[in-house]
Amino acid sequence: MLEVEVKYSVDAFAALEAALARWGAPLGPPRRDADHYFNAPDRDFARTDEAFRVRSVGAKNYVTYKGPKRDRETKTRLEIEVALAEGEEAAADFRRLVTHLGYKPSGIVRKSRRVAHCERDGFPLQVCLDEVDNLGRFAELEVVAPEERYEAAKALVLAAAHELGLTQVERRSYLEMVLATSAGADAG
Amino acid sequence: MLEVEVKYSVDAFAALEAALARWGAPLGPPRRDADHYFNAPDRDFARTDEAFRVRSVGAKNYVTYKGPKRDRETKTRLEIEVALAEGEEAAADFRRLVTHLGYKPSGIVRKSRRVAHCERDGFPLQVCLDEVDNLGRFAELEVVAPEERYEAAKALVLAAAHELGLTQVERRSYLEMVLATSAGADAG
Lengths: 188, 188
Known about the structure:
Chain A has helices spanning 14-22, 45-48, 88-100, 150-163, 174-187, and strands at residues 2-9, 31-39, 51-57, 60-66, 77-83, 104-120, 123-132, 136-145. Chain A is built from five helices and eight strands; from the N terminus they run E-H-E-H-E-E-E-H-E-E-E-H-H. The first copy, chain A, starts with a strand and ends with a helix. In chain A, a hairpin with a 2-residue loop joins strand 3 (51-57) and strand 4. Chain A is globular. In chain A, strands 1-5-4-3-2-6-7-8 form an eight-stranded antiparallel barrel. With 188 residues, chain A is α+β, with helices and mostly antiparallel strands. At the A-B interface, strand 5 and helix 3 of A face strand 5 and helix 3 of B.
């Protein structure tokens, strides 16, 4: 399956919250994500445009691989996510395991996320309102679609973003932005 | 933690079953293990004496890293194991995920395993009676011990093996043996 995704920088969430309510897509309660990213021993994911991370959401843990982005307008890419055992120990053990395989921690992204779900044109659309530590506010729209529905899914997320009044496209990942920020801080 | 382990080839299990009963360590019911091993993109685990596998035991799944063996008498090594989500789909997804990271399937080991637990000299000792598909019967004795109790744990597993009458030491992993067998079959 493909993760067909667009991301926008936003100044405030109020207008988005109102639009989602009109769509009949209420936002869930905020959750805290801690995403630990790793770089590979055999290639540089910053160059190959891949990502490998362990995400902890409360007690739940997930390991995720993301392939290179497919086009220039969206952040569409292959995504494979598998749940690990719950709890801090399982997450720490898995991070230690991949370190022994040669993976190096590349950065941690922490954010508060609220998620709304709705259906549009037969696709399950997910809208995330993110407050990312030290970065600011963002809205992500995402559809998970099979390869053969890629173009339709892409048109749909772009139309939905337009309808929500989103204009400031952000193509960089949160990890790239966090690393750019800390590099700036280091330089300063 | 270290996995302090010895393995022996055995002709039959009857004498071992009787000895374990005398120890008050009854064998659990047989379970089927399917171990999918992978080789790394940046090094050859057969040369570095490491192992990386996804084990499925019924619906349960585990991902395991094993470091190089520490000594010549036992199979002692670092072991990190983390449970994945249950079910065949999670195991298949995880195997697909590591393939995208560049790992290559190196072999599958399938076996029926019965496990007995007992305590000896304050250590929790695990005895496994394994019938490995196409390889035969083996007994494994294992203690998981902290680094500082390595020598005591090693002495204990060797003494317990002696007491059980085990003599035919097998240092090779099941994977190595499976690969040797299939290489022979290929050559024939």
